[in-house]
Write a structure and sequence with these properties.
The chain is an alpha/beta fold. The chain has 2 domains: 101 residues, Four Helix Bundle (Hemerythrin (Met), subunit A); 140 residues, Rossmann fold (3-Layer(aba) Sandwich). The chain is built from 9 helices and 6 strands. It has a 6-stranded mixed sheet, with helices on both faces.
Length: 268
């Protein structure tokens, strides 16, 4: 469909009187079908990464909510330092567990708050960065302090800790100290990640090429409108074909081939 749309546009630019105007709705529909197929392939790339590396879970929330206690409870040892003082955690701490065949990389982060301490501020910024790159965020708050009024990341699962002391206003109730609600939390986490072993493993290089092709098709769809000359979509369509060609080998340049074969020892 990409090649067909590209050919239609180029032919009608050169022979508009003979061939007539481009059927923009039909072309858009074909490209949208391709984007749907690419989305399915990219999900396979995500599943491949999860199966190989595991899912990153960023444990975030305000200070003293019990984030470090939750990590310790799940790994069954005192991996993170726990004190009654806010700002104890300054850097990220990682530990991995396995649930239902899926590796979960738990990342304990510094408590989110405004601070004038430059070291703690660096930790808070690292926490936010970790949250942006995580597959899922566990946003932990203290039930006794009430529901936190702030905007959560779109990939956040709200967790109400210390639910044994006060019924939470919202979120999944747990007690890190007494280890209650943790099994259910892990079940919910695996469900939210929607992990399924990939039918066809997809490498990181192919995943990047699929993402680039999808971005190019999105650009083409932006320009394929009645009020915009259709030939403006040509560049985007060529970029999409190039990106997909790096997967099939049809457009591999010397630089790409050098990167691919750099890991092989030939003649040694």
């Amino acid at each position: 469909p990409i090649e067909k749309t590209l050919a239609d546009i180029e032919a009608r630019v050169d022979f508009s009187e003979e061939l007539g105007e481009l059927d923009i709705p039909a072309s858009r529909k074909e490209l949208e079908i391709v984007r749907t197929d690419l989305a399915q392939l990219r999900e396979g790339a995500r599943a491949t990464r999860l199966a190989r590396e595991g899912a990153r879970i960023a444990i975030m929330g305000p200070p003293n909510a019990g984030k470090s206690s939750l990590l310790n409870a799940l790994v069954r040892r005192d991996r993170a330092l726990v004190t009654p003082y806010a700002g104890t955690t300054r850097d990220t701490i990682e530990e991995a567990i396995e649930v239902a065949g899926l590796r979960l990389v738990l990342v304990d982060t510094a408590g989110l708050r405004e601070t004038e301490d430059p070291v703690e501020a660096l930790g808070v910024e690292r926490s936010r960065r970790e949250g942006r790159g995580a597959d899922l965020v566990w946003y932990v708050y203290d039930s006794a302090d009430g529901y936190p009024i702030e905007e959560f990341p779109p990939n956040a699962l709200l967790i109400a800790n210390k639910a044994d002391l006060k019924n939470p206003d919202a979120g999944h109730p747990i007690s890190a100290t007494h280890r209650t609600g943790l099994d259910r939390l892990l079940e919910i986490t695996v469900d939210r990640l929607a992990f399924a072993p990939p039918q066809v493993p997809i490498s990181d290089r192919h995943a990047l090429a699929l993402a680039e092709a999808d971005e190019a098709l999105a650009g083409a769809l932006e320009t394929l409108r009645p009020d915009i000359p259709p030939d403006l979509a040509v560049t985007f369509l060529r970029e999409a074909l190039w990106s997909l060609g790096t997967i099939t080998g049809e457009t591999a340049d010397e630089g790409l081939l050098e990167r691919i074969f750099s890991g092989f020892c030939v003649g040694k």
